[in-house]
Description:
The protein has helices spanning 26-33, 45-53, 56-62, 82-93, 105-109, 137-143, 147-150, 156-172, 180-192, 200-207, 211-223, 252-258, 269-289, 333-341, 367-375; strands at 15-19, 39-41, 70-74, 96-101, 119-123, 227-230, 246-249, 296-300, 307-312, 317-321, 346-351, 357-359, 362-366. By secondary structure, the protein is α/β, with parallel strands linked by helices. Helix 13 packs parallel to helix 15 (367-375).
Amino acid sequence: MLHRLLSFNDIECDSIFLWGPRQTGKSTLLKQLFPETPYYDLLKSDVYSKYRLQPSLFRDECMMLDEGALVIIDEVQKIPALLDEVHWLMSNRNMRFILCGSSARKLKRTGANLLGGRAIRKVLHPLVSGEIPDFDLDKAVNHGMLPRHYLAENPQKRLLAYIGDYIQQEIIAEALVRNLDSFTRFLEVAALSDSEMVNYTKIATECGVSSKTVKEYFSILEETLVGTFVPAYTKAPKRKVQLSPKFYYFDVGVTNHLLRRERLKRGTAEYGHAFEHLIIQELIAYLDYTESKKRLTFWHTLNNAYEVDAIIGDAEFAIEIKSSPSIVSSHLKGLKAFKEEHPDCRLIVVSLEEKPRLFNGVEVWPATDFLQRLWNGKIIIPT
Protein backbone atom coordinates (compact mmCIF):
# COMPACT_ATOMS: atom_id res chain seq x y z
CA MET A 1 0.00 0.00 0.00
CA LEU A 2 1.37 3.40 -0.98
CA HIS A 3 1.69 5.92 1.85
CA ARG A 4 0.51 9.29 0.58
CA LEU A 5 2.24 12.33 2.06
CA LEU A 6 -0.65 14.78 2.10
CA SER A 7 -1.39 15.61 5.74
CA PHE A 8 -4.89 15.68 7.20
CA ASN A 9 -3.85 16.86 10.67
CA ASP A 10 -6.07 19.93 10.28
CA ILE A 11 -9.20 17.76 10.33
CA GLU A 12 -9.06 17.59 14.13
CA CYS A 13 -10.21 21.21 14.23
CA ASP A 14 -11.22 22.26 10.71
CA SER A 15 -13.13 21.15 7.65
CA ILE A 16 -11.27 20.56 4.39
CA PHE A 17 -11.92 21.07 0.70
CA LEU A 18 -9.87 18.33 -0.97
CA TRP A 19 -9.33 19.02 -4.66
CA GLY A 20 -7.24 17.22 -7.23
CA PRO A 21 -7.31 16.14 -10.87
CA ARG A 22 -9.16 12.95 -11.64
CA GLN A 23 -7.44 9.66 -10.73
CA THR A 24 -4.89 11.17 -8.36
CA GLY A 25 -6.31 8.82 -5.72
CA LYS A 26 -8.49 11.12 -3.61
CA SER A 27 -11.30 8.63 -2.96
CA THR A 28 -8.91 5.76 -2.31
CA LEU A 29 -6.94 7.84 0.16
CA LEU A 30 -10.01 8.99 2.08
CA LYS A 31 -11.36 5.47 2.37
CA GLN A 32 -8.00 4.26 3.66
CA LEU A 33 -7.59 7.03 6.22
CA PHE A 34 -11.21 7.29 7.40
CA PRO A 35 -12.76 3.83 6.97
CA GLU A 36 -15.44 4.35 9.65
CA THR A 37 -16.46 7.88 8.62
CA PRO A 38 -19.90 8.42 7.02
CA TYR A 39 -19.16 8.67 3.28
CA TYR A 40 -21.47 10.17 0.66
CA ASP A 41 -20.34 9.27 -2.86
CA LEU A 42 -22.16 11.47 -5.36
CA LEU A 43 -20.75 9.45 -8.27
CA LYS A 44 -23.32 6.80 -7.40
CA SER A 45 -26.43 7.58 -9.42
CA ASP A 46 -28.88 6.66 -6.67
CA VAL A 47 -27.05 8.78 -4.09
CA TYR A 48 -26.80 11.68 -6.52
CA SER A 49 -30.50 11.55 -7.42
CA LYS A 50 -31.58 11.35 -3.79
CA TYR A 51 -29.78 14.48 -2.59
CA ARG A 52 -30.11 16.49 -5.78
CA LEU A 53 -33.89 16.39 -5.47
CA GLN A 54 -33.94 17.02 -1.72
CA PRO A 55 -30.65 18.37 -0.28
CA SER A 56 -32.26 18.82 3.16
CA LEU A 57 -32.27 15.03 3.57
CA PHE A 58 -28.52 15.27 4.05
CA ARG A 59 -28.98 17.62 7.02
CA ASP A 60 -31.68 15.40 8.49
CA GLU A 61 -29.38 12.38 8.39
CA CYS A 62 -26.42 14.28 9.84
CA MET A 63 -28.60 15.37 12.76
CA MET A 64 -28.51 11.74 13.91
CA LEU A 65 -24.71 11.85 14.22
CA ASP A 66 -22.80 13.06 17.25
CA GLU A 67 -22.13 16.77 17.53
CA GLY A 68 -18.70 17.50 16.07
CA ALA A 69 -18.75 14.34 13.92
CA LEU A 70 -16.74 14.05 10.69
CA VAL A 71 -18.50 13.43 7.36
CA ILE A 72 -17.05 12.98 3.85
CA ILE A 73 -18.79 14.07 0.64
CA ASP A 74 -17.09 12.87 -2.55
CA GLU A 75 -17.61 14.76 -5.84
CA VAL A 76 -19.27 17.57 -3.90
CA GLN A 77 -19.29 19.84 -6.98
CA LYS A 78 -22.07 17.68 -8.46
CA ILE A 79 -24.64 19.08 -5.99
CA PRO A 80 -23.63 22.61 -4.99
CA ALA A 81 -26.78 23.01 -2.86
CA LEU A 82 -25.38 20.55 -0.33
CA LEU A 83 -22.88 23.18 0.74
CA ASP A 84 -25.66 25.25 2.32
CA GLU A 85 -26.53 22.23 4.47
CA VAL A 86 -22.86 21.72 5.27
CA HIS A 87 -22.55 25.36 6.32
CA TRP A 88 -25.54 25.06 8.66
CA LEU A 89 -24.20 21.86 10.24
CA MET A 90 -20.79 23.41 10.78
CA SER A 91 -22.30 26.49 12.41
CA ASN A 92 -24.94 24.78 14.52
CA ARG A 93 -23.49 21.36 15.35
CA ASN A 94 -19.73 21.97 15.04
CA MET A 95 -19.51 19.20 12.49
CA ARG A 96 -16.42 18.75 10.35
CA PHE A 97 -16.38 17.80 6.68
CA ILE A 98 -14.01 16.63 4.01
CA LEU A 99 -15.48 17.93 0.75
CA CYS A 100 -13.79 16.21 -2.16
CA GLY A 101 -13.86 16.92 -5.88
CA SER A 102 -11.87 17.36 -9.08
CA SER A 103 -11.99 21.17 -8.89
CA ALA A 104 -13.92 24.09 -7.45
CA ARG A 105 -14.64 25.58 -10.90
CA LYS A 106 -18.26 24.43 -11.10
CA LEU A 107 -18.97 25.63 -7.57
CA LYS A 108 -17.55 29.07 -8.33
CA ARG A 109 -19.43 29.34 -11.62
CA THR A 110 -22.77 28.48 -9.98
CA GLY A 111 -22.23 30.88 -7.09
CA ALA A 112 -22.28 28.01 -4.60
CA ASN A 113 -21.62 28.51 -0.91
CA LEU A 114 -17.85 28.05 -0.49
CA LEU A 115 -18.22 28.30 3.29
CA GLY A 116 -16.64 31.72 3.67
CA GLY A 117 -13.18 30.50 4.55
CA ARG A 118 -14.46 27.92 7.05
CA ALA A 119 -12.76 25.06 5.17
CA ILE A 120 -9.05 24.64 4.46
CA ARG A 121 -8.09 24.03 0.82
CA LYS A 122 -5.85 21.07 0.04
CA VAL A 123 -4.82 19.53 -3.29
CA LEU A 124 -3.83 15.92 -3.87
CA HIS A 125 -1.16 15.77 -6.55
CA PRO A 126 -0.17 12.70 -8.55
CA LEU A 127 2.18 10.33 -6.78
CA VAL A 128 5.53 11.74 -5.74
CA SER A 129 8.80 9.86 -5.48
CA GLY A 130 8.72 9.98 -1.69
CA GLU A 131 5.54 7.88 -1.70
CA ILE A 132 6.93 5.07 -3.87
CA PRO A 133 9.20 2.33 -2.50
CA ASP A 134 11.88 1.45 -5.08
CA PHE A 135 11.03 4.57 -7.10
CA ASP A 136 11.87 4.08 -10.79
CA LEU A 137 12.96 7.36 -12.38
CA ASP A 138 12.71 6.18 -15.99
CA LYS A 139 9.26 4.74 -15.42
CA ALA A 140 8.12 8.05 -13.90
CA VAL A 141 9.55 10.04 -16.84
CA ASN A 142 7.74 7.78 -19.31
CA HIS A 143 4.48 6.89 -17.56
CA GLY A 144 3.87 9.92 -15.38
CA MET A 145 2.82 9.70 -11.75
CA LEU A 146 -0.91 9.12 -11.74
CA PRO A 147 -1.21 5.92 -9.68
CA ARG A 148 -2.89 3.76 -12.34
CA HIS A 149 -0.45 4.97 -15.00
CA TYR A 150 2.81 4.73 -13.06
CA LEU A 151 2.01 1.19 -11.94
CA ALA A 152 0.95 0.00 -15.42
CA GLU A 153 3.26 -1.82 -17.80
CA ASN A 154 1.86 0.12 -20.75
CA PRO A 155 -0.16 3.19 -19.76
CA GLN A 156 -0.94 4.46 -23.28
CA LYS A 157 -4.53 3.22 -23.42
CA ARG A 158 -5.18 4.52 -19.93
CA LEU A 159 -3.75 7.92 -20.86
CA LEU A 160 -5.96 8.04 -23.95
CA ALA A 161 -8.99 7.24 -21.82
CA TYR A 162 -7.91 9.82 -19.25
CA ILE A 163 -7.83 12.66 -21.79
CA GLY A 164 -11.16 11.48 -23.20
CA ASP A 165 -12.73 11.42 -19.74
CA TYR A 166 -11.41 14.89 -18.99
CA ILE A 167 -12.91 16.33 -22.18
CA GLN A 168 -16.18 14.47 -21.64
CA GLN A 169 -16.69 15.11 -17.93
CA GLU A 170 -15.02 18.47 -17.35
CA ILE A 171 -15.41 20.25 -20.69
CA ILE A 172 -18.48 18.92 -22.51
CA ALA A 173 -20.59 18.24 -19.41
CA GLU A 174 -20.06 21.74 -18.09
CA ALA A 175 -20.21 23.42 -21.53
CA LEU A 176 -16.97 25.23 -20.79
CA VAL A 177 -16.09 25.89 -24.44
CA ARG A 178 -18.09 26.58 -27.56
CA ASN A 179 -15.73 24.98 -30.07
CA LEU A 180 -14.61 21.56 -28.86
CA ASP A 181 -12.35 20.97 -31.88
CA SER A 182 -10.32 24.10 -31.21
CA PHE A 183 -10.02 23.23 -27.51
CA THR A 184 -8.84 19.72 -28.34
CA ARG A 185 -6.25 21.20 -30.69
CA PHE A 186 -5.29 23.64 -27.94
CA LEU A 187 -4.55 20.77 -25.53
CA GLU A 188 -1.93 19.47 -27.96
CA VAL A 189 -0.43 22.90 -28.71
CA ALA A 190 -0.28 23.68 -25.00
CA ALA A 191 1.72 20.48 -24.57
CA LEU A 192 4.22 21.80 -27.12
CA SER A 193 4.59 24.85 -24.86
CA ASP A 194 5.01 22.68 -21.77
CA SER A 195 8.02 23.93 -19.73
CA GLU A 196 8.37 26.86 -22.15
CA MET A 197 7.45 30.51 -21.72
CA VAL A 198 3.89 31.04 -22.91
CA ASN A 199 3.39 32.94 -26.16
CA TYR A 200 -0.36 33.49 -26.42
CA THR A 201 -0.21 34.93 -29.92
CA LYS A 202 1.73 32.01 -31.33
CA ILE A 203 -0.54 29.46 -29.69
CA ALA A 204 -3.62 31.31 -30.93
CA THR A 205 -2.31 31.24 -34.50
CA GLU A 206 -1.65 27.48 -34.32
CA CYS A 207 -5.12 26.83 -32.90
CA GLY A 208 -6.96 29.20 -35.22
CA VAL A 209 -8.52 31.18 -32.37
CA SER A 210 -7.95 34.56 -30.73
CA SER A 211 -5.40 35.26 -28.01
CA LYS A 212 -8.31 36.03 -25.68
CA THR A 213 -9.71 32.55 -26.30
CA VAL A 214 -6.32 30.97 -25.63
CA LYS A 215 -6.14 32.78 -22.30
CA GLU A 216 -9.62 31.46 -21.46
CA TYR A 217 -8.50 27.93 -22.37
CA PHE A 218 -5.45 28.20 -20.13
CA SER A 219 -7.75 29.46 -17.37
CA ILE A 220 -9.87 26.32 -17.78
CA LEU A 221 -6.79 24.12 -17.42
CA GLU A 222 -5.75 25.98 -14.29
CA GLU A 223 -9.17 25.97 -12.67
CA THR A 224 -9.69 22.27 -13.37
CA LEU A 225 -6.19 21.65 -11.93
CA VAL A 226 -4.94 20.08 -15.16
CA GLY A 227 -2.24 22.69 -15.67
CA THR A 228 -0.34 25.34 -13.79
CA PHE A 229 1.71 28.42 -14.53
CA VAL A 230 5.14 28.93 -13.01
CA PRO A 231 5.84 32.69 -12.88
CA ALA A 232 9.11 34.37 -13.78
CA TYR A 233 11.48 35.59 -11.09
CA THR A 234 11.36 39.32 -11.66
CA LYS A 235 13.83 40.85 -9.21
CA ALA A 236 16.52 42.08 -11.57
CA PRO A 237 19.34 44.10 -9.97
CA LYS A 238 21.40 44.05 -13.18
CA ARG A 239 20.06 42.04 -16.11
CA LYS A 240 16.62 42.60 -17.59
CA VAL A 241 14.45 39.48 -17.42
CA GLN A 242 11.57 37.85 -19.24
CA LEU A 243 8.20 38.31 -17.56
CA SER A 244 6.09 35.66 -19.33
CA PRO A 245 5.23 32.59 -17.21
CA LYS A 246 5.96 28.98 -18.07
CA PHE A 247 3.19 26.40 -18.32
CA TYR A 248 3.20 22.79 -17.11
CA TYR A 249 0.53 20.12 -17.28
CA PHE A 250 -0.07 18.63 -13.84
CA ASP A 251 1.52 15.31 -14.84
CA VAL A 252 4.32 14.54 -17.26
CA GLY A 253 2.50 11.42 -18.48
CA VAL A 254 -0.34 13.59 -19.81
CA THR A 255 2.17 15.75 -21.67
CA ASN A 256 3.88 12.67 -23.10
CA HIS A 257 0.58 11.38 -24.40
CA LEU A 258 -0.47 14.68 -25.99
CA LEU A 259 2.94 14.94 -27.70
CA ARG A 260 2.89 11.24 -28.66
CA ARG A 261 6.14 10.67 -26.77
CA GLU A 262 6.68 6.99 -25.99
CA ARG A 263 9.56 4.85 -24.73
CA LEU A 264 11.75 7.84 -23.93
CA LYS A 265 15.45 7.01 -23.74
CA ARG A 266 18.14 8.79 -21.80
CA GLY A 267 20.30 10.97 -23.97
CA THR A 268 17.44 12.22 -26.16
CA ALA A 269 15.97 15.72 -26.17
CA GLU A 270 12.50 14.29 -25.52
CA TYR A 271 13.73 12.52 -22.39
CA GLY A 272 15.36 15.76 -21.25
CA HIS A 273 12.11 17.73 -21.56
CA ALA A 274 10.14 15.07 -19.68
CA PHE A 275 12.87 14.79 -17.02
CA GLU A 276 12.71 18.54 -16.36
CA HIS A 277 8.92 18.40 -16.16
CA LEU A 278 9.05 15.57 -13.60
CA ILE A 279 11.44 17.44 -11.29
CA ILE A 280 9.33 20.62 -11.49
CA GLN A 281 6.25 18.49 -10.77
CA GLU A 282 7.92 17.16 -7.62
CA LEU A 283 8.96 20.64 -6.49
CA ILE A 284 5.41 21.94 -6.92
CA ALA A 285 4.00 19.07 -4.85
CA TYR A 286 6.68 19.40 -2.16
CA LEU A 287 6.08 23.11 -1.63
CA ASP A 288 2.33 22.47 -1.50
CA TYR A 289 2.41 19.48 0.86
CA THR A 290 4.81 21.19 3.28
CA GLU A 291 2.68 24.36 3.13
CA SER A 292 5.82 26.29 2.36
CA LYS A 293 5.66 30.05 1.97
CA LYS A 294 8.50 29.83 -0.55
CA ARG A 295 7.38 30.36 -4.14
CA LEU A 296 8.57 28.43 -7.19
CA THR A 297 9.66 30.64 -10.10
CA PHE A 298 12.16 30.49 -12.98
CA TRP A 299 14.73 33.00 -14.26
CA HIS A 300 15.32 33.91 -17.90
CA THR A 301 17.15 37.00 -19.12
CA LEU A 302 15.58 39.20 -21.76
CA ASN A 303 18.43 38.59 -24.22
CA ASN A 304 18.01 34.80 -23.82
CA ALA A 305 21.63 34.48 -22.69
CA TYR A 306 20.91 32.92 -19.31
CA GLU A 307 18.21 30.79 -17.74
CA VAL A 308 17.68 28.85 -14.52
CA ASP A 309 14.89 26.26 -14.43
CA ALA A 310 13.76 26.75 -10.83
CA ILE A 311 14.20 29.50 -8.25
CA ILE A 312 12.90 28.73 -4.77
CA GLY A 313 11.84 31.56 -2.49
CA ASP A 314 13.56 34.92 -2.62
CA ALA A 315 16.61 33.59 -4.50
CA GLU A 316 17.34 31.09 -1.71
CA PHE A 317 17.83 28.19 -4.13
CA ALA A 318 18.62 28.15 -7.85
CA ILE A 319 18.10 24.73 -9.44
CA GLU A 320 19.14 23.71 -12.95
CA ILE A 321 17.71 20.45 -14.31
CA LYS A 322 19.93 18.57 -16.78
CA SER A 323 19.33 15.01 -17.99
CA SER A 324 23.06 14.55 -18.53
CA PRO A 325 25.24 11.81 -17.01
CA SER A 326 28.16 14.24 -16.92
CA ILE A 327 27.75 17.87 -15.88
CA VAL A 328 30.28 20.25 -17.45
CA SER A 329 31.03 23.96 -17.03
CA SER A 330 28.67 25.03 -19.83
CA HIS A 331 25.75 23.58 -17.87
CA LEU A 332 26.47 26.03 -15.04
CA LYS A 333 26.45 29.35 -16.89
CA GLY A 334 22.87 30.25 -15.93
CA LEU A 335 23.48 29.41 -12.28
CA LYS A 336 26.73 31.39 -12.22
CA ALA A 337 25.04 34.42 -13.79
CA PHE A 338 22.23 34.25 -11.26
CA LYS A 339 24.76 33.95 -8.44
CA GLU A 340 26.38 37.22 -9.57
CA GLU A 341 23.12 39.01 -8.79
CA HIS A 342 22.18 36.92 -5.75
CA PRO A 343 25.41 35.94 -3.99
CA ASP A 344 23.72 34.14 -1.07
CA CYS A 345 21.83 31.73 -3.34
CA ARG A 346 22.46 27.98 -3.01
CA LEU A 347 23.21 26.50 -6.45
CA ILE A 348 22.04 23.00 -7.38
CA VAL A 349 22.08 20.87 -10.52
CA VAL A 350 19.72 17.88 -10.69
CA SER A 351 21.27 15.42 -13.11
CA LEU A 352 21.75 11.81 -14.17
CA GLU A 353 25.23 11.59 -12.70
CA GLU A 354 25.89 8.51 -10.58
CA LYS A 355 27.16 10.20 -7.43
CA PRO A 356 26.75 13.64 -5.84
CA ARG A 357 29.67 16.04 -6.06
CA LEU A 358 30.62 19.69 -5.61
CA PHE A 359 31.65 21.25 -8.92
CA ASN A 360 32.88 24.86 -9.07
CA GLY A 361 30.78 25.75 -6.02
CA VAL A 362 27.65 24.04 -7.40
CA GLU A 363 26.03 20.98 -5.81
CA VAL A 364 25.53 18.30 -8.46
CA TRP A 365 22.98 15.71 -7.40
CA PRO A 366 21.79 12.51 -9.09
CA ALA A 367 18.03 12.92 -9.53
CA THR A 368 17.06 10.07 -7.22
CA ASP A 369 19.36 11.34 -4.47
CA PHE A 370 18.01 14.86 -4.86
CA LEU A 371 14.39 13.70 -4.67
CA GLN A 372 15.07 11.52 -1.65
CA ARG A 373 16.71 14.41 0.18
CA LEU A 374 13.95 16.78 -0.94
CA TRP A 375 11.20 14.67 0.60
CA ASN A 376 13.28 14.07 3.72
CA GLY A 377 13.42 17.84 4.23
CA LYS A 378 17.17 18.06 3.63
CA ILE A 379 17.07 20.37 0.60
CA ILE A 380 14.27 22.83 1.25
CA ILE A 381 13.58 22.75 4.97
CA PRO A 382 9.82 22.83 5.69
CA THR A 383 8.70 26.09 7.26
